[in-house]
Design a protein that fits this description.
With 568 residues, the protein is α+β, with helices and mostly antiparallel strands. It has 17 helices and 23 strands. The protein has helices at residues 46-57, 62-76, 124-128, 139-150, 155-168, 174-187, 191-197, 214-226, 229-232, 235-246, 253-258, 285-296, 306-327, 343-352, 474-488, 493-496, 519-527; strands at 9-12, 33-36, 40-43, 86-92, 98-103, 117-118, 121-122, 170-171, 210-211, 262-264, 267-271, 274-278, 391-397, 407-408, 413-414, 455-459, 462-470, 502-504, 511-514, 532-535, 540-546, 553-557, 564-567. A seven-stranded antiparallel beta sheet has the order 2-22-21-17-16-12-11, covered by helices on one side. Strands 1-13-4-5-10 form a five-stranded mixed beta sheet, covered by helices on one side. A hairpin with a 6-residue loop joins strand 21 (540-546) and strand 22 (553-557). The protein is globular. Bound molecules: glycine (GLY). Glycine is lined by residues 16, 397, 399, 418, 421, 450-452, 472.
């Protein structure tokens, strides 16, 4: 297939308040696809998608569009992502270079390994709500870096339209109102959060109410005028320290001052006839999407009957997630074996899979050279060139709905609760029921392990897909399933995204399946030994790609959320 001459594509795949965001999949009919000649954007919110398209129309490139989407989501979907959180941004530039910007939160300098342990037990309330729950936010630093180095616009150009939306307000839809209601009990504890999201009668804003965020608008305008220094080296850091001191937190202005993005070396390998580019640690997503694809290469997925195919995929997920629980952490602090994405290691794991029945996976595997061949620490090397033809896959988050539930007074910024992505204590499950090991223990300056999996796929050296998802650990499974549906089964993205999903994360030993999965398939999987757990919707995926005609682009937002894809 030929590539179109104009190649500006932005896939912005933001937001992770996860299962709460995903509605039940009601139909497996193909989702609504958008098409465009000059560019395409897919996000979880129509207003944010529109902001991305506007950035393209006003002469921006895909990087500008992605940042416009991100900053707008921080206003209209701030319960999921925003500048109080973090992100991973994966960019394939027209000159062929690939950039992986790690804007993941960092633990404050005063963080300690046992900071969430009370009376000998890990206390997840502390890692999920309030002053100790937040890592130092990195999203804004990543957006700033991306625009400065690879965009055509100024950060200011992208901030001001979003500031206007924050100032003027927007009407809450049922989904946002539902998430707010679900978080209200915890948010109520914080006066500054009540001031933004609650009415004078003490109730949270509801569907149809207008949410105005003048403080957030002012924050965006300050950053537009003074740059991200306002946030990292100025008034925002002081506001954070002041609030934290009063509320038992440990984050200081110096922590903001010390925040830095990392340029990571992406994981580049192959899957059948395709080249894959995924995000390296501290994302676990890239490692395990790659590990699973490597395992699945040993099966002819297209020729397997559907129950066997799903069984093989579920077993593959289980093997990979057992590795995740043991090996994965911030590569700047622990050794994460490169062997996890080695084809030979995958062959060993694939050989364990029994086509008829589940296998018992009691522990992680042992990739070759695990002590010596490890993922690199971050590097500052980068090459820069001007060109059009950029693909961006970006996933951002404040973690669970409304993050720590804390709004820093006077700023409108919702702080993340990403500290819960550390293993607060070995064996203690986090919000996503994930257990971790020493590799992901809390340490000052360390980045918590993430499942965010922005992914770009190439064919014959040219990008054909940019995708990613929201939904905690299910992100990894969602990306895998989309890739299998598109690359192995030949489905267009709008069909791939509407297939019922499954997810296995090793612990707990259960296979999550969407209700929409055919009853016969569920029964067959149970017969093979899977313990099924039915879910309405599993996560939210966004995909953009090259259209079948090879001339245009196609984009699709997950029908499980109220997102939108739009082309230009
Ligand atoms: N906060 C969820 C993740 O990064 O995986």
């Amino acid at each position: 297939m030929k590539l179109p001459t104009l190649k500006i594509v932005a896939a912005c795949l933001l937001a992770l308040s996860l299962t709460s965001l995903a509605k039940e999949l009601k139909t497996t009919e193909p989702a609504q696809a958008a098409h465009g000649k000059h560019g395409i954007v897919a996000s979880v919110h129509p207003t944010a998608t529109e902001a991305g398209i506007n950035a393209l129309k006003r002469g921006g490139n895909a990087i500008d569009a992605a940042v416009a989407v991100a900053l707008t989501l921080g206003v209209v979907d701030g319960d999921n992502s925003g500048i109080g959180g973090g992100c991973f941004m994966l960019i394939h530039r027209a000159n062929g270079s690939v950039v992986a910007i790690d804007g993941r939160e960092m633990a404050p300098a005063a963080a300690t390994r046992d900071m969430f342990i009370r009376d000998g037990k890990g206390d997840t309330e502390l890692s999920q709500v309030g002053a100790l729950a937040s890592g130092v936010p990195g999203a804004l630093a990543a957006y700033d870096y991306a625009v400065k180095n690879y965009g055509k616009k100024k950060l200011k150009d992208l901030l001001l339209p979003a500031a206007k939306i924050a100032q003027d307000g927007f009407k809450l839809n049922a989904s946002y109102a539902g998430r707010l209601k679900g978080s209200a009990r915890d948010m109520k504890r914080f006066q500054s959060s009540r001031a933004v999201f609650f009415k004078s009668d003490g109730q949270p804003l509801g569907e149809g109410d207008t949410l105005k965020q003048p403080d957030l608008a002012a924050t965006y305008r300050h950053i537009a005028e003074q740059g991200s220094d306002w946030f990292y080296h100025g008034p925002f850091g002081i506001a954070v320290e002041t609030w934290m001191k009063k509320n038992g937190g440990i984050m200081t202005a110096k922590d903001l001052d010390n925040y830095h993005i990392c340029l990571r070396e992406p994981i580049t390998t192959s899957y059948r006839d395709y080249q894959t580019i995924t995000f390296p640690p501290p994302s676990s997503g890239g490692v395990h999407v790659t590990e699973m694809l490597n395992i699945l290469e040993h099966f002819n997925l297209k020729s397997l009957d559907e129950p066997t195919r799903l069984h093989v995929i579920a077993e593959t997920m289980k093997l990979a997630f057992a590795d995740r629980a043991y090996w994965l952490g911030d590569p700047d602090f622990v050794k994460v074996p490169h062997g996890l994405v080695d084809k030979k290691y995958a062959a060993e794991l694939a050989a364990k899979i029994n086509l008829d029945h589940t296998i018992e996976v009691t522990s992680h595997g042992m990739p070759a050279d695990w002590q010596t061949n490890v993922f690199k620490k971050h590097t500052t090397h980068f090459s820069v060139a001007d060109a059009e033809g950029n693909w961006v896959a970006c996933t951002a988050t404040v973690n669970t709905s409304f993050g720590s539930k804390v709004v820093i007074p006077g700023t409108g910024v919702v702080m993340n609760n990403e500290m819960d992505d550390f293993s607060t204590q070995p064996g203690v499950a986090n919000f996503f029921k994930l257990v971790g090991a020493e590799a992901n223990a809390v340490a000052p300056g360390k980045r918590p392990l993430s499942s965010m999996s922005p992914t770009i796929i190439l064919k014959d050296g040219k990008p054909i897909l940019a995708l990613g998802a929201a939904g905690g650990p299910t992100i990894i499974s969602q990306v895998l399933l989309s890739l299998v549906n598109i690359l192995d089964l030949g489905m267009p993205p709008e069909m791939a995204i509407a297939q019922p999903r499954i997810h296995h994360q090793w612990s707990p030993n259960e296979l999550s399946v969407e209700k929409a999965l055919a009853p016969a398939l569920k029964a067959n999987l149970e017969k093979r030994g899977h313990h099924l757990s039915e879910k309405g919707g599993i996560g939210v995926t966004q995909i953009v790609g090259r259209d079948r005609d090879g001339k245009n682009f196609v984009g699709v937002a997950d029908p499980r959320a109220g997102g939108k894809a739009a082309g230009w």
